[in-house]
Amino acid sequence: MVEHRPLNDIIAYAILTLGVFIVAFPVYLALIASTHDAATVVGGSMPLTPGSQALENYYRAIFVGGSRTSREPVAHMLINSFISAIGIAVGKIFISILSAYAVVYFRFPFRKTAFWIIFVTLMLPVEVRIYPTYKVVADLKMLDTYAGLIMPLIASATGTLLFRQFFMTVPEELLEASRIDGAGPFRFFWDTLLPLSVTTIAALFVIQFIYGWNQYLWPLLITTQDSMQTIVTGIKKMLYTTDELAEWQLAMATAILAMLPPVAVVVFMQRLFVRGLVETEK
Amino acid sequence: MEKSVVFNNKLLPYLLLVPQLIITVVFFYWPASQAVLQSFKREDAFGLTSEFVGLENYQSLFAQPEYYKSMLTTLIFSSLVAALSLSIALLFATQADKNLKAAGTYKTLMIWPYAVAPAVAGVLWIFMFHPSLGTLARPLRWMNFDWNPLLNGNHAMTLVVMAAVWKQISYNFLFFLAGLQSIPKSVLEAGAIDGAGPMRRFWTIVFPLLSPTTFFLLVVNVVYVFFDTFGIIDAVTGGGPAGATTTMVYKVYADGRLGGDLGGSAAQSVVLMVIVIALTAVQFKYVERKVQY
């Protein structure tokens, strides 16, 4: 930096510490609430230090479910969330890497048209066309199924654009060399292009996993059975079914569990996450 | 840039495109066109028959005071969230950019809320500020402030804005930090040699150079507020009290689901589509290649 003033550094550290505090406090509070018993949490004078009920709360949330609300245990919701988040990530990567390969490495009639058909989907998130999409899924008998949770959310161009952009940067000499070696489109894809794309695939996976895990409106609409709901949609139902009697300590334990997988992904795969975030927005 | 060396297969490219095209047509084009069609129709109470009613759904939509109210709510909500989350994130990003030893750690500590689902963020904030059990509602009560986001529309809006800002700071922080780090140090040094202090350098050099990032983030934030905050609103207020936090997207949901007015809901969807397409067009026209990462 240009000038160096110790005071400046102190102010910077102070502001950043405040920032980290603001960012972390809501989660800290939820963590604390998940370690107290129901009466302490609802009483309105919960201490800011951990209580002794952590094991019991998490055990009940994960395996038993709320007694008053007779909801599904969280373990089941977690499984649903994992299946749909991984399904969304893998499904999107699969369809978009193939279509990007077609658009970049082949010349055929309607190539531009096909690309535009896919490209336009960028403009309309699923929230805008929610009921008609619901009707399509209902007509296809896909309510309360994993396919119904996954497929409408992968109909988007982000992955295709990302792979297209990456394929454009792959040197043409590679394709020439493979062709001289007698490789067809399958072998070139499998032996050359796919290994080069590993980082891009991983970055897209990270972003899509978080996107899929955090879906709310769509799973809320198309799951009617409790056994199919995801953890993110399950929490709210814990709070609003019996209102005053809601078991906040279990809801907070569930909130912590709902945050854990995607937050872990961001923290431990930060490089891939940042890369995916920046590149999907381009 | 197009590849000059390509494969010549005739059928293969179509086969490669088929999975995505099928999914796109079935789950995107078909429902989107149904929304447009339905917005010109009226269904009877049982959904058995429907007749073409022209622009009637739109007319009754624009005759509803609630619709204008939801537009105003969306406008207030998105300006507050965008303004607050952008300025707070910029403040943190400029501090983290000051060559601090711990900048990398701070980055990690700042960005993880991106991964928290909006609905979960909403639950965290209603827990903190719940009128009867919220830890942060207690000090408000001691100050004799009658805080109740469950009954007071302004309080509800404040809470929803805070939760939405909290979740969006991380994203804006990340892009602002990248933008700041791409500003050449030599430009800042030149400014310093000319006698400009840190504040002056920020407003006359850094801020203008950052403006493509800011503009890009502005568009992204507005889109975020429009769509991704649904979970926050549903978890915190359910659109209430008395519609005080019912945004346009929330109204599409509430009218179609709870009210059963599919034609009216479809007309709202179409209005939203137009808005989003306009926003996306702005983004592509003015933002696309000018942003520095």
Question: Can you give me a brief rundown of this structure?
Answer:
By secondary structure, chain A is an all-alpha fold. Chain A has 15 helices and no strands.
Describe it for me?
The complex is a heterodimer of chains A (282) and B (293). The mean pLDDT of chain A is 85. Chain A has 15 helices and no strands. Helices cover 72% and strands 0% of the residues of chain A. In chain A, helix 11 packs across helix 15 and helix 13 runs antiparallel to helix 14. Chain B is mainly alpha-helical. Chain B is built from twelve helices and two strands; from the N terminus they run H-E-E-H-H-H-H-H-H-H-H-H-H-H. Chain B has a two-stranded antiparallel sheet with strand order 1-2. Chain B is globular. The model of chain B has no long low-confidence stretch (mean pLDDT 84). At the A-B interface, helix 1, helix 4, helix 5, helix 6 and helix 7 of A face helix 1, helix 3, helix 4, helix 5 and helix 7 of B.
Chart the SSEs and their pairings.
The complex is a heterodimer of chains A (282) and B (293).
Chain A: H1 6-33, H2 38-42, H3 54-64, H4 74-105, H5 111-119, H6 130-139, H7 146-154, H8 158-169, H9 172-180, H10 185-196, H11 198-213, H12 217-222, H13 231-240, H14 248-268, H15 270-281
Helix pairs in contact in A: 1-14, 3-14, 4-7, 4-8, 4-11, 11-15, 13-14, 14-15
Chain B: H1 12-38, E1 41-43, E2 50-52, H2 56-62, H3 65-96, H4 103-111, H5 118-129, H6 137-142, H7 153-181, H8 185-193, H9 198-228, H10 230-236, H11 248-259, H12 262-287
Antiparallel strand pairs in B: 1-2
Helix pairs in contact in B: 1-12, 2-12, 3-7, 3-9, 5-7, 5-10, 7-9, 8-9, 9-12, 11-12
